Known about the structure:
This protein is α+β, with helices and mostly antiparallel strands. It has helices at residues 7-23, 25-28, 57-75, 106-123, 170-190, 222-240, 295-324, 349-355, 397-408, 441-444, 455-475, 505-509, 530-535, 540-556, 572-582, 599-612, 623-631, 649-653, and strands at 34-37, 82-87, 94-100, 130-133, 137-142, 158-161, 196-202, 210-216, 246-249, 253-258, 269-272, 364-368, 371-377, 383-389, 418-422, 429-433, 490-492, 498-500, 657-658, 661-663, 675-677. α11 (455-475) runs antiparallel to α14, α11 (455-475) runs antiparallel to α17 and α14 (540-556) packs antiparallel against α16 (599-612). The longest helix is centred in the middle third of the chain and has 30 residues, at 295-324. The termini are far apart. The model is unreliable at 6-29, 40-48, 278-302, 316-338, 511-519 and 647-694 (pLDDT under 50).
Amino acid sequence: MKFPDFILPLFSILLLFFFLLFASPAAQAANAVYHSCGTTGNYSTNSGTGNYSANSTYEANLRTLFTDLRRNATYSSTNFGFAKSNVGTTPNLVSGLVLCRGDVNFTACSSCVNQATQDIQNLCRYYKVAIIYYDFCFLQYSNQNFLSPPDYTTNNQAILANTSNVDVSVTRFDNLVDFLMNSTGDYAAFNDSNNFGTSQMNTTDSFPVIRGLVQCTPDTSDANCRICVQYQINLLTLFLSGKQGGRILNVWCNIRYEIYQFYSGPPLLTLRAPAENAPTLPPPPSEGKKKTSTGTILAITVPLVLAFVVIAGLCVCFLKRRKSGLTKPLLNVSNPEEIKNVESLLLDLSVLRVATTDFAEENKLGEGGFGAVYKGVLPDGREIAVKRLSQSSNQGMGELKNELLLVAKLQHKNLVRLLGVCLEEQEKLLIYEYVPNKSLDQILFDTKKRHLLDWGIRYKIISGIARGLLYLHEDSQLRIIHRDLKASNILLDVDMDPKISDFGLARLFGGDQTQEVTNRVVGTFGYMAPEYAMLGHFSVKSDVFSYGVLVLEIITGKKNSATFENDQTEDLLSFVWQHWTNGTITEVADPFLDQHYPRSELLRCTQIALLCVQDNPADRPIMSDVAVMLSSETVSLETPSKPAFCITKSSIRAGSFSSGFINIGGNTDRSSTKSVPVSPNEVSISDMEPRNNS
Length: 694
């Protein structure tokens, strides 16, 4: 039987290409399936970011680390394919880890590790933190020692999904995947010395065969390996439900399942699917129809059919690989122009329940007038703060969504950023960026932590709050009047930069405010401007008053509600004003500063603060003027007049106290005063009308 001349060369070339692609480990490991520069875990919020310079000590240590990892991972007689190391000391410490997949051979592992050390330098050049994953290995490094102790549940997760959905019962398929991965996790943790396992589940019905893989780092204990794997398995139904395959990548463990063969060799664990009634797929074609009638047809058509099958398989393989490396970001609203509607901000309640361990008490960061705030960790490792609002909003859903959309578009360095929202099952959840150093009051008024705030940091906080307020008042597309500016609403990031929080919430979830006058005065006694506290009048100048009080607290380290020893002064403003008029203003400085501050800066900040707390709103500067006064020593300052709320012991005795309400101003005439609720952390109230730039 003679084949046509063109058939055999074509068939040979295609078979060779097919063999090289699928049989060569190096070919499969050529392209990274995922990489991240700058944020690779929860430690990234603790100085685990930044850049290094060319030819620096950090770069030299990084190269040494790569050399150590290559040598130890591929030439070690124990724990082959795994290495970790620390090189250098802080601030030039470099910590790294590399792990090859448990079923690959020496050549594939060595090739993958070499490729990783090259690619990560090209893709993440000058980043101090980076991670890269391939099919056959992964590599991570950081300027933080993430190796000890490992965090098996909150480290960075990368979730990659097969773009194809199953065409069988999703519930049944998800249950089978869960059963398979739990069994594989048990095998890897408790039956394999290298914490590695592969599996295959055969089904008695018409469901596809499902294959799984689980791997932990070899130095992880059996119990910790299983804990880590279980955390990943819990995410499967949330993010990969109904998908034909997917993987969850983590430094200390990773899992994967597919309906096709993706690992080398036979499975280490073979399972039979639990019996259950489920929809069936159409029966496969009859095997008897594969025979041909004549040898001539076979000689011509078989090579052609094989060629087409191989080409089609190559195309499908490349497309599947390319798509499987794509991960849809859970929350990516860094560009305000890309936020077209509130749906782009929505996040599933189930995701937030997992992130916060179902709003566990140990994850609660605090509680204010609108509800509790919980810390959470998203599957990609980002830390978030989830504000769980009360059910008392009177707004319609349409109006609520419109205002949420406006708030989400407010982006400034000195504002806490809204990342997303959840409006499911009667829940109203706002998802914010997590700020690690918590609120200013927790440091400023704590005698054990106050030393962390030297004058340089305090001046930076004073200036940053001013810039944030200026943005809210004048520079954003909206005009936001905060109305509850206070130390507990100023959060501090890892670099101690201030971020104003809780802006906009009262307008969103209160419902009875107007642009100029409110019938419901809410806020915190001591920070409220007199015209707001007594008459309900608010404007940008009421925020300026609160800012002035806050600046005096930062300078003195004293709460505005503190009791002073001096018989003639009973509040912070009177205390500072008395020293100002006596010419002894430096005596108000926080003793913890130990006189380590520029006298001119302290005097200037004090004078600006006193200008902000003047009784007449017209006499107070606007925030753009405050920003100029802070940034330029050549700008002359006006002389402040006596601040509002300068009260003495006698005026307090004349005041009226009842049922948790304080009668402002010391006047017992109910007709001329207004009672306001004393609140340690109530609300912020905002004018949410878009700015008219005409």
